[in-house]
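Q: Structure tokens for this one, please.
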Amino acid sequence: MAKIYPVLTDSQLRNLPSTAEAKVYSRLRDDLSDDFLIIHGKSYVATRKDGGHGDGEADFVIFCAGHGLLTVEVKGGGVAYCPETGWASVDRFGNSHEIKDPVAQARNQKYAFLNQLKMHREWNALRRRIALGHAVLLPDVDRVEEIAMLECPNAIVGGSRALRDVTNWLNEVYDYWEGDDCSPLGADGLRVIERVLCHTIHVRPLLRDILEDDNAVRLRLTAEQASVLRTLGRRKRAAIVGAAGTGKTVLALEKARMLANAGAKVLLLCYNKPLAAVLSRQFDPAGKVFACTFHQFCQHCCRRCVEMGRTDPMARAQAEVPDDDYFDIQLPLAAFYAIDDLGDELRFDAIVIDEGQDFGEEFWLPVEMAMKSSADSSMYVFYDENQRLYSRVSSFPIPESESYPLTKNCRNSKPVHDLAYRYYEGALADDSGIAGVDPMPLAAPHLRGQAKKIAQKATELIHDEGVPPSEIAVLVAGKPKEQYYDLLRSETLPRPARWSREEHFQERSILIDTVRRFKGLERDVIFLWLDDQSVAEVAIMYVGVSRAKSVLYLVADSDSLEQLQLASRTV
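A: Here is the predicted structure, written as tokens:
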């Protein structure tokens, strides 16, 4: 049986607009051998004589391994030809209807398809000169001998009798067109034709374009979430609580900007250095917003105090509490002394704090000291209790009645949101509604194999999907981190992409960092690199998973990944 494209059911054939074409389709499909390849209703675009382009459609394009290419134009009912008016179809009532010249149509079609084939390297590699012909088939006409003219010899016209023995008729038409220098198409040529003209095409958007669409939705969601800032009104102190992805950092930035635009001197604090670097880049260094980590602010206070020729506050703090922790006790105390000594130089009209859940009890002493007026200065704390990665217990210097919830996830696609919130305790935020893709596991038994899989997938994202390297991050949850970093950096990336070790602003670079350091930040694509211990750490999983805006890969050995009970298969 011949191969025929497209494959139509009997029901589809009955619904074809042309019953004549349906009749021919059935006969060709059922009677021809596998030496034939038939394409029905094939559309094409061809070059016109005037240099432009036009579209067309061939009723049947028939390729035969023993011969070559034949285009067949089918006309149902009766036909008539008049030199003055041209071709016409004749219905059962004897009425004539003007039609296009079927011979010219078939003739033009064969050249259009030959030109299409010549555009493909695989066809040209055959170096085969095949017979190239055209014909007209009138399945409802018994006597076609009367249709004879220079442009339409009887040899290339078939009627109902030709259709009853279609193989013989086709061979006769091929013989008519073949010359001494023609070669048969061959079985290999038939396979090439099928690959070139009948191959399945899957077209999907690049992941880059999907990510851009997702980010457009996020902008709208964050704008909606910003209504909480209007809710705050003229309140001087407020705590804004929200789960991962609810836009806390964006809102903290916007609140700091609003306060500065109103003339206030603003201190914007967070806990993590990478986040502080991102925050500080949003403002003019000489402007009204001073953005840094809490500890950077403490060190700044101590340094300014020494520069001004005052008593070294750090020495004083260490003398008073010599055995206590430097970062949690001594440095905050030293900052308190520095602010108390220098006064308004280190004080602010408003203080905005992101990552408030990571501030210890001792942190609030210098923070409150940094307010110009306990009555008139403002303080806004953004926090998420579930992102507490450090063993600190802290209560904010803000009344519980001044706590405002964020209820919409503006960052994560729905599949990432659903996985992250497995590790969340408290009132759940609504998902973003962004479709996204399911989190995908990458499994290998050893770290080196896992590093190789990350590099291979990252290369695919950059090279095939158009994802910018700067929108990809690898977050390491296992320890020691250097072992993971070194293995990954030994893997190559497509140039000019490269790995960036904890450097967040390197162009054309994929960031490698730890989950803890990356808290408060995000990327379109996250590779979360886990070990057998981190998969069981609720806080690590919650923070790590929720860093992914749209695409999340979970990397570990198979046993560790099985604990996550992911719906998607390991890749």
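A few notes: The first helix runs from residue 10 to 14. The two ends are 39 Å apart (CA to CA).
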